[in-house]
């Protein structure tokens, strides 16, 4: 599978993040980027290994222990055997002491339970970087907030959306679109404006100069379906034909 690589202009520390839980990887990646890191993410160890062997670089690696095909520990050992020295933190749900002892005994920089807060993870990352070549420190992102817009609640600390107190299972991209539209309730947003929220300003996608429009329509269709799953009467997203969409205020 292809790398999910950050295309931003952030020139700072590159982190290799290998995690097969898509939702957890998306959330953690966004938090890391908000803190000033450039993140290259993979959902399998074999593709991460290929990235490194093909000349990819990273100043720190975050590895899940349980991965398809080869485990995080196997990936770590292969890199060490090939004299590829990347400070490595295991970020995993395996909290047993035997895993932590194995990781540290084999030379890992740290071992962190996934249930720990992002603040803890950030502190540990900074500690690992500071002990290796004096890497820069990251800054904490803005404090978490809960946005309430009528019957909609958006938890920006976890990128979760609630409609009338029921969780709407949105992806990170879908959450961003909902947040953008709801924060501009009763204002029309163009297809381009919405797509920029997901991919960045001016990103080219699809066929032709306006190919991104079909991608936005697909996003909106999925978002509507997910809200309707928790509320069959949901009708807050209006279509402005040929231009874009609007979140209807209450």
Briefly, what CATH class of the largest domain?
A: Alpha Beta
Strand content: 15-25%
| Biggest sheet statistics | 6 strands, mixed
In the sheet with the most strands, the strands line up as 1-3-2-4-5-6
What is the number of beta strands? 13
Number of domains in the coordinates?
2
Class from helix and strand fractions: alpha/beta
* Count of discrete alpha- or pi-helical segments spanning 4 or more residues: 8
| SSE string | EEHEHEHEHEHEEEEHEHHEE
CATH architecture of the largest domain: 3-Layer(aba) Sandwich
Radius of gyration of CA atoms, rounded to a whole number: 20 Å
The average pLDDT value, as a whole number, equals 82
CATH topology of the largest domain: Rossmann fold
Helix amount, in percent? 25-40%
What is shown here, in short?
This protein has 250 residues and is α/β, with parallel strands linked by helices.
Textual characterization of the structure:
By secondary structure, this protein is an alpha/beta fold. It has two domains: 4-130, Response regulator (Rossmann fold), CATH 3.40.50.2300; 146-247, Winged helix-like DNA-binding domain superfamily/Winged helix DNA-binding domain (Arc Repressor Mutant, subunit A), CATH 1.10.10.10. Helix content is 38%, strand content 20%. It is built from eight helices and 13 strands. It has helices at 22-34, 45-53, 72-81, 97-105, 118-130, 172-183, 191-199, 212-230, and strands at residues 4-5, 14-18, 38-42, 60-63, 88-92, 110-113, 146-149, 152-155, 160-163, 166-168, 189-190, 237-240, 244-247. The strands form three sheets. A six-stranded mixed β-sheet has the order 1-3-2-4-5-6, sandwiched between helices. A four-stranded antiparallel β-sheet has the order 7-8-9-10, with helices on one face. A three-stranded antiparallel β-sheet has the order 11-13-12. A hairpin with a 2-residue loop joins strand 7 and strand 8. The longest helix has 19 residues, at 212-230. The chain is elongated. The N and C termini lie far apart (43 Å).
